[in-house]
Design a protein that fits this description.
By secondary structure, the chain is an all-alpha fold. The chain has one domain: MetI-like fold (Orthogonal Bundle). Helices cover 88% and strands 0% of the residues. The chain has eleven helices and no strands.
Length: 245
């Protein structure tokens, strides 16, 4: 109910602002809705949304897999942490735009270059979060696993992984929010499709209804994924901590 009320307030403020500044600068919701219906009927909206979501999924999975493994290794091994820390600091402070441009220059305007650039930008946040989570592991639980001679994989699954779960969820949430933004930049600069590409076209044509159509539709998809997937996942993997408390 509160979310519905918030949505109604958003529409009301939008309508008032459109009336105040004029349709040329800010079209009313009805004009954007008409453009959205037109793009949906032509199939362009779903095509470009699908292309963007595919890139997000691939880059996110790649970055989370590598970032979790590297973060766990750096948290467990001092030598690996010392060797990897300068690279981590460099990636954390390197602008996303620079990474994307370099990837396109070195690998060409290809899908592989775009996904790699997006994953590299998300990678350091996952590494940092998982490294801190690994450092926070309870050594007493490790000793218990050793005393009971638990196989390494079983100990990791039943002792280490539950402790890392909240950190994995935090890395996933922060990383996903970062990937959403970076993928649009990558598409704007060097892809022939996707939401970012369409936003670039709308900017060149000064087509504000088209720009708002893709921007708001993309934001709505992000909100749906956050509500239906990310939040339930975070609640589920943190359930054991609530029971322990």
């Amino acid at each position: 109910m509160l979310r519905l009320l918030s949505f109604v307030m958003f529409l009301a403020i939008w309508w008032i602002a459109a009336f105040a500044v004029g349709d040329a600068k800010l079209p009313p919701p009805s004009a954007v809705l008409a453009t959205t219906i037109k793009e949906a009927q032509s199939g362009a909206l779903f095509f470009h949304l699908g292309a963007t979501l595919a890139r997000v999924a691939l880059a996110f999975v790649l970055a989370m897999a590598l970032g979790s493994a590297i973060g766990y290794l750096m948290g467990r091994n001092r030598l690996a942490n010392r060797l990897g820390d300068p690279w981590l600091i460099l990636l954390l402070n390197l602008p996303a735009l620079v990474v994307i441009v370099l990837a396109y220059i070195w690998a060409g305007l290809t899908e592989v270059a775009a996904i790699t650039a997006i994953a590299i930008n998300k990678l350091p946040t996952a590494v940092v979060t998982l490294r801190e989570g690994t450092r926070a592991l309870d050594p007493a639980l490790d000793e218990m696993a050793t005393v009971f001679a638990m196989p390494r994989w079983r100990a990791f699954r039943h002792v280490v992984l539950p402790q890392l779960a909240p950190y994995i969820a935090a890395a996933a949430r922060s990383g996903l929010s970062l990937v959403w933004k970076i993928v649009l930049v990558a598409e704007l600069l060097g892809r022939p499709n996707g939401v970012g590409f369409e936003i670039g076209i709308a900017f060149q044509l000064f087509d504000i209804p088209l720009l708002l159509t893709y921007s708001l539709t993309f934001a709505a998809v992000v909100l749906i994924i956050e509500t239906l997937l990310v939040q339930p996942f975070e609640t589920r993997i943190s359930r054991w901590r609530l029971r322990a408390a």
